[in-house]
Amino acid sequence: MSLLRAEALSKEFGGVHAVQALQFEIPAQGVYSIIGPNGAGKTTLLNLLTGVYRPSAGRIWFDGRELTGRAPHHYAAAGVGRTFQNLQIFFNMSALENVMVGRYLHERCSLVAALLRFPSLARAERACRAEALELLEFVGLGQYARVGSDSMPYGALKRLEIARALAARPRLLLLDEPAAGLNPTETQEIVRLIQRLAARGIAVVLVEHNMKLVMGVSDQVLVLDYGRKLAEGSAESVRRDPKVIEAYLGSEAQAHA
Predict the structure, then answer these.
(1) C-beta atoms surrounding 68 within 10 Å
(2) Which of 37, 93, 204, 228 could form a disulfide with 97 if both were Cys (CB 3.0 to 4.6 A apart)?
(3) Which sign does the torsion angle of CA 49, 55, 57, 62 carry?
(4) Interval 95-134: pLDDT, tens
(5) What b/e string do you get for 144-160 counting C-beta neighbours within 10 Å, with b at 16 or more?
(6) Residues 124 and 106 sit within 8 Å (Cβ to Cβ)
(7) Are 58 and 8 in contact (CB under 8 A)?
(8) How far apart are CA 21 and CA 24, in angstroms?
(9) How far is 172 from 88, CA to CA, in rounded Å?
(10) Cα(31)–Cα(217) distance, rounded to whole angstroms?
(11) Angstrom distance (rounded) from CA 7 to CA 162
(12) Are 33 and 206 spatial neighbours (Cβ–Cβ below 8 Å)?
């Protein structure tokens, strides 16, 4: 059963075809990876799947509901979360506060309750804080809860952004190069976190250049070639596809075959 479906999805920028007639389905569980070199259209595709860009053509369906052309907050409310290739962290906040921001979609406090500080507001704040602490523990950052994010190491910030995305309780989580710039130890932490996310029942879409990571965690892989689909299938079938080996994976793929 698919959670998200794209039909003939295309995006043009001034005559440049960044994404061209893509057709695919993302399952409701597991890890679905999107690979390709710089300029293949991976981040453009993520922007389409989260409402940041409106498609030039085609349609997007999420859990049977069409979201084509809707604004990003409609995708978020439907259950689509994401992280970004370049960190989007509130550096003037603590790690805990960053995660609490991610829960705004689920807060139901009225203006009157906020102004008069009703008991319901205090209960909601305690619940929000408790859930944020739980998510920090889940991503392995419990010790950073009250630490200013501006003093956290880069690898921890990558996981902090994932924790904040999880605070919105997504059913589908898109990760844009979560291992970029990480050392081998930090990369393994990301691998374990992706596996825990999948085990938790969250469908993960992974864009990543680290092919060893991709092949190690993916259930399905979509390969892009200048905005077009070059191949799609299991990690094993994609890894052994001659077109993929020649165009993208090369000697690295053969070394891990």
Answers:
(1) 17
(2) 93
(3) positive
(4) 999 999 988 765 555 444 444 455 666 677 788 899 999 9
(5) bbeeebeebeebbbbbb
(6) no
(7) yes
(8) 10
(9) 19
(10) 7
(11) 28
(12) yes
* Cα distance between residue 74 and residue 50, in whole Å: 9
Q: What is the residue type of 87?
A: L
Taking the C-alpha atoms of residue 202 and residue 244, their distance in angstroms, rounded to an integer, is 28
**Which pairing describes strands 65-66 and 57-62: parallel, antiparallel, or unpaired?**
antiparallel
* d(C-alpha 60, C-alpha 42), whole Å: 16
The CA distance from 36 to 66, in Å, is: 27
| Residue bearing tokens 């859990």 | 63
Number of neighbours of residue 194 by Cβ within 10 angstroms? 25
Dihedral, 94, 97, 102, 105 alpha carbons, nearest 10: -160
Write the pLDDT tens digit of every residue in 26-67.
Answer: 999 999 999 987 888 999 999 999 999 999 999 999 999 999
User: The pTM is what?
Assistant: 0.88
- Pair 200, 217: CB distance under 8 Å: no
> Taking the CB of residue 181, how many other CB atoms lie within 10 A of it?
11
Residue 221, beta-bridge partner list = 33, 233
Q: In 139-183, which ranges are continuous DSSP H helix?
A: 154-167
